[in-house]
Fold this sequence. Notes:
alpha/beta, two-stranded parallel ribbon, binds iron/sulfur cluster, elongated, ten-stranded mixed β-sheet, 14 strands, 2 domains
Amino acid sequence: MSLQNIYDLTYEELNNFIINNCSTDLKKSGMRTNQLWKFIYKKGLKDILHFSNIPDELKNNLKQQLSFKRIDIAEKKISNDGTIKWLLKLQDGNLVETVFIPSDKRGTLCISSQVGCTLNCKFCHTGTQLMVKNLSTAEIINQILVAKDELKDWGTQKIITNIVYMGMGEPFYNYNNVKKSIAILKNNQGLDYSAKKITVSTAGITPEIIKAAKEISTYLALSLHAPNDELREKIMPINKKYKIKDLIESCSYYAKINKEKIFLEYVLLKNINDSEHCSKQLIKLMSKFPSKLNLIEFNAWPGVGYEPSDQETVQKFYRSIKNSGHIVTLRKSRGEDILGACGQLKTESQRKPKSL
Ligand code: SF4
């Protein structure tokens, strides 16, 4: 029987675990949980024998009942621009990708929430891979731990300054595990990422956006990519279920509760969503709730039917939004040469046929 993974437990769950399963004295449990949490999430230790000041009995108890194992790196690629992509092999053999994007001011880790994706956005490489499974909390957290090991980012260092849930999958279709992983990330005894250092990106699952406003309360990014329903339905089938009107309502609510603007992600596709008409519709839409725009240059992948907009169109689109008074940034493509850029992630994992 495989052991439960320690990285599946929140701080409170670990505290309850050592009380209920390791006979830890109630009076000492808080202190012990604190110690354990610091060894795991501040120092990055993965061998319980190296946890000093923990009684041998508790160490043995934990060792018998919990696994501290990291997931394995199957492959690592480094881009010319310093972006690093790790292909990680989960314990069940499935593969998932995690990308580190360094820049002058920050180091951003882009993590996955699912193997594959159900949403089939037409411009996204992950969308061509059938949904295989939701990642467990431990598998989400392990992506950060493995990247921190690789970058030697333990102790007082923080090379990874920001975490974005923008890798493979729709985070809100794995809501509970994503929510738990964010609770672990935010805990200030350990990894200590504040809400403003974490961004969850959604294709627009409106019931979960409403729930997440109070339960997750990080920055929210909405993958918009089209300013009207007709076009959005063509490139993002999820829009058949949740219309732009619903997105405006749920995002307005999220922005109000969290007192922060929503990031709108908009990938520019040649002759699809890059016209002047689209930019005018987008400006109108942005006026309806507090938002700022990330324009993204499209990254092609093998077999895709779209092309990036030409530079003149990109600049024209960018200027029209900027001149309207809205906040807009033009995101440079990173890690394109290793298929590590936005929308390029995909692994070989396949959905297994159901056994009869
Ligand atoms: S863009 Fe996001 S939601 Fe859409 S298919 Fe790709 S991974 Fe899934």
